[in-house]
Amino acid sequence: MPTTLTAFADVTTSDSALRRFLHGLPGVDAVGLEARAAALGTRSIKTTAKAYAIDLAISMIDLTTLEGADTPGKVRALAAKAVHPDPTDRTTPMTAAVCVYPDMVATAKAALGGADVKVASVATAFPAGRAALPVKLADTRDAVAAGADEIDMVIDRGAFLAGRYLETYELIKAVKEACVRPDGTSARLKVIFETGELSTYDNIRRASWIGMLAGADFIKTSTGKVGVNATPANTLLMLEAVRDFKAQTGIQVGVKPAGGIRTTKDAIKFLVLVNETVGEDWLTNEWFRFGASSLLNDLLMQRQKLSTGRYSGPDYVTVD
């Protein structure tokens, strides 16, 4: 199937056109959505399948530190953990990425030393997104220039909730353009909606379509900095959006639930959502990620239990 947005060219020509399109999307059946997410979460995954799921989940983690107290030493330690999550077992997969603030990108890049782990950077005045457009673009360009492979941007929730949909779309497009390097290659762009602040499932669906139409490589639930972050229901809704978008355009977009996913059991529930909603094409870290650093520790403990028959406990796993 050719990949094209030609069919949607008229949708983004004006705020009114984009509004008509977004408000013309099918309304979300909240009860049905939550019931399906809950039902899929009851699937029992055991033995060999569980071992495979644990390794897959480890390989999908964006190992993250986004604190004001971050130091180069902490970022180097995180990079080492990303490359060798369990130093006692070198068969453990590497994580997908290390995610840091822009000023720590160069440190992370150097610490990884060419390992097959991406460096992701938050940008656009993360986590609130309350800054002027030139500041947001400078934030993005600085991270890309420092070597970021991926950019995790936040939308202006105030603009979106006020119904300024075209402004939200144009921000994402501008950041996407700022991800392009001088050699013509581009950092991949993850667009964070902060679903906990969007109030309704209909808003999450609309935000998903704005992000995809504007060129997002990934759509992401949350910053992890608010009370409600990734849930099975909002992630299922976003998976349905990327499925429908690919069906209409041929363009594949990734999904990243972030915040609140802490246990192996939780992670497996999300992998079942992926498999049952969008299929095997998304069951890779190129198209699905977990923004959940604390999750890695539980995955490692469960992995050790499967291989040794003993539950090692948290003292045997490095704590971030």
From TrEMBL:
Gene3D superfamilies: Aldolase class I. Its EC number is 4.1.2.4. It catalyses: 2-deoxy-D-ribose 5-phosphate = D-glyceraldehyde 3-phosphate + acetaldehyde. GO terms for molecular function: deoxyribose-phosphate aldolase activity. SMART domains: DeoC (SM01133). Keywords: Lyase, Schiff base. It holds the Pfam family DeoC. Pathway: Carbohydrate degradation; 2-deoxy-D-ribose 1-phosphate degradation; D-glyceraldehyde 3-phosphate and acetaldehyde from 2-deoxy-alpha-D-ribose 1-phosphate: step 2/2. The keyword Hydrolase does not apply. Belongs to the DeoC/FbaB aldolase family. DeoC type 2 subfamily. This is Deoxyribose-phosphate aldolase. It comes from Streptomyces antimicrobicus. The gene is deoC.
